[in-house]
Amino acid sequence: MKNYLSINDIDSLPKLVEEAKNLKKNPKANVALGANKTIGLLFFNNSLRTRLSTQKAATNLGLEVMVMNFGNEGWALEYEDGTIMNQGTSEHIKEAAQVVSQYCDIIGIRAFAGLTDKEKDKAEVVLNGFKEYASVPILNMESSVGHPLQGLADAITIDENKTKKRPKVVLSWAPHPKALPHAVANSFIEMMQLQDAEFVLTHPKGYELDPKITNGVTIENNQEKALENADFVSVKNWSSYANYGKVLNQDESWMMTKEKLGKAKFMHCLPVRRNVVVNDAVLDSEQSIVIQQANNRTYAAQIVLKKILENL
Amino acid sequence: MKNYLSINDIDSLPKLVEEAKNLKKNPKANVALGANKTIGLLFFNNSLRTRLSTQKAATNLGLEVMVMNFGNEGWALEYEDGTIMNQGTSEHIKEAAQVVSQYCDIIGIRAFAGLTDKEKDKAEVVLNGFKEYASVPILNMESSVGHPLQGLADAITIDENKTKKRPKVVLSWAPHPKALPHAVANSFIEMMQLQDAEFVLTHPKGYELDPKITNGVTIENNQEKALENADFVSVKNWSSYANYGKVLNQDESWMMTKEKLGKAKFMHCLPVRRNVVVNDAVLDSEQSIVIQQANNRTYAAQIVLKKILENL
Amino acid sequence: MKNYLSINDIDSLPKLVEEAKNLKKNPKANVALGANKTIGLLFFNNSLRTRLSTQKAATNLGLEVMVMNFGNEGWALEYEDGTIMNQGTSEHIKEAAQVVSQYCDIIGIRAFAGLTDKEKDKAEVVLNGFKEYASVPILNMESSVGHPLQGLADAITIDENKTKKRPKVVLSWAPHPKALPHAVANSFIEMMQLQDAEFVLTHPKGYELDPKITNGVTIENNQEKALENADFVSVKNWSSYANYGKVLNQDESWMMTKEKLGKAKFMHCLPVRRNVVVNDAVLDSEQSIVIQQANNRTYAAQIVLKKILENL
Prior knowledge:
The structure is a homotrimer.
Chain A: H1 13-25, E1 38-43, H2 49-60, E2 64-69, H3 70-73, E3 77-78, E4 91-92, H4 93-103, E5 106-110, H5 118-123, H6 125-133, E6 138-140, H7 148-161, E7 168-173, H8 183-192, E8 198-202, H9 211-214, E9 218-219, H10 223-227, E10 232-236, H11 258-261, E11 265-267, H12 280-283, H13 290-310
Parallel strand pairs in A: 1-2, 1-5, 3-4, 5-6, 7-8, 7-10, 8-9, 10-11
Helix pairs in contact in A: 1-7, 1-13, 2-13, 4-6, 7-8, 7-13
Binding site for carbamoyl phosphate (chains A, B, C): 47-50, 75, 110, 147-150, 269-270, 297
GO molecular function (chains A, B, C): amino acid binding; ornithine carbamoyltransferase activity
GO biological process, one term (chains A, B, C): citrulline biosynthetic process
């Protein structure tokens, strides 16, 4: 693997999931692989799971880890070509990416969607800026458009919990007081299209995602109908894509409950707002597999880093 | 040792002090003990000594260390049960503690008293939230009620400097311009009760600490009288407990001076405001053992982590 | 080497450059040298290159690294002697420096000039405070007066690129919208005086640097004339020294361009504001060696740390 920018950088998802499950049994087996190599984890946004699980994964592979909160520890970056940089930005992505490549063998980037400028978010200026100018592989730790480490962790978790060859998996929108990015939902949908499952996407009208990503996906606006006989229900809020970055409604009736969930397993990428996105009864039940999902973030990151290291 | 939440988690303080002193002679002797294990140090408040000494101690034991400033790098946590989380908090302690437990074998927590809500501070919501929901041992790196790593470092320092079997140790309040927590004083008092010494607590009226902690302790409001023939004088400011979190007075006459100190050794947990809490003449004299105290923070943390690791 | 506070702490620059170039060929050759030792990197200001390259260098030498953003993670420090500390500062440099010395075998310090109080900046209160009170070696990671790791990296880069024994090297001022410190320019000038080269300093009138540093240096206010037949052109903005910390002009005609550069190599310490300090055509050409300069930051730090470690 050269870079890991999107779920679609995976050759065969089922094969990679299998390898991740093996590695989970013996996380230190490849500790020699990263010896004398360094990964830089650059955070332009907050992070708990990604921060700790990616560090853990890198350490399991013997990599040295340098963590940097780019926003308040470094310099404000410029992404436009040809700008006269006499305003707020101090350093161009061209230099920053090349410079960090001198110190790191792999660069991880977390840079969320700003949710104000759709075209800028779609262009993924931070992630793609590093990809274009860095001379080392880039790991997407959540960009404006995707969160492929989460998507891969979700695939591992579904695989570990499925009791039939072709489970029914539902991704359901849920209410939230703040405008959230589309990245997690996008990567979940892309991930589902790389494996054998019955996949249904459900959300209120107005919450349609990028049609390029949902192309070919079954969309059902009736949540109850979508959830029928589901084996896995993954819940997530996102803001409007058409009316970009707007919170159109916070319809409480879309909150996930024990009744709606039926016998399905409950998934969420976390952090999750209790009793807004999902109620306590679901999260505190044995049907919730969110902690297992969080644990699999380590092995998702580790298998991806392993593939990148093997390709160096 | 399962957790280290309070000085009272220590079985035998004199024995632990002895072990810490041995380990100080050969800090790397147990470097294999933490191999392939990870400690997460979560800071909800500023830290210099605790941050560096706990990292150093963990590294001496071969642990991998992940440091996180939870407040500005992670998500605002909710601690109440049953809340509808549609306000400022993004993640519940239930998930956060379980999730961090997936990545770390031990979790260190620093979360100061807010000094506005006495009941909330006494409940130690952050520390106890992690204790309740984490599946790994918890290390208290200063909570609202106690600072047991400091208390243990103080015990080691007293032991190293005492010239008689049963020294006289005084804990004296001192003035300070800001309202400070009770944690350091509490742990010092608890620590003194676990060893053979003549212990006197002195403070102006109104600065009584939690009576549950000072139960059985000699309290003397006349500082001069309290200090008579002292072998060790530990100085610390704290705000009022009864009139919770208030600065009742900044009586300069309580500042520690060379005259008052007599022949005693001077102790302070640091940081210390010079010429407010204690004057330069004391700090710059050979009677001050504050730097040795700070050094012992490493060995206090290391002996505690060693006990926790041996119990894993 | 005891400390590395200034370029002038180097015995023989040509010899050290030679050693750095050898170490660059085999960066892990001395990984045993730092074993069981710890470096603390204390940042009072933002940093990208210094942060990552110094960590990388330390790791190459087998050192444990503890990074701390002192400003927002620790306590506000007092530097004055005898102060009654009842205002904004919580800890005196006397304690802070001694305490950090308990946990670290080497301390790196980054503390920029404030550019408001010339005497205070010249006194280098932070760096010199640590030097005075720490009991371990101090590494200057850019102080108010100098940036000797940058200066050494520049020397390595010039050596790697020179095609004649005595190249002509020009340091040229360039415009910038904000007031910048003199540290990088100072160390470049000091570095040039330690080797055999034709060195010319060029800047508009009013931008004279500290005469103690430029003593004996050829200064030419006509940029075009200064640049004639240059082999290396290092560009940097700095604010006025006489009219301390002021931006006297932002004369665009001083921006470096392809025409002015001629056949010279272009150098800059980065971050650089494109099309303000230098235009895109220069930075994107093969004449720019700024990325190589940034890479050499690792080996500058590593050779200095090696010398310090060998002297421990």
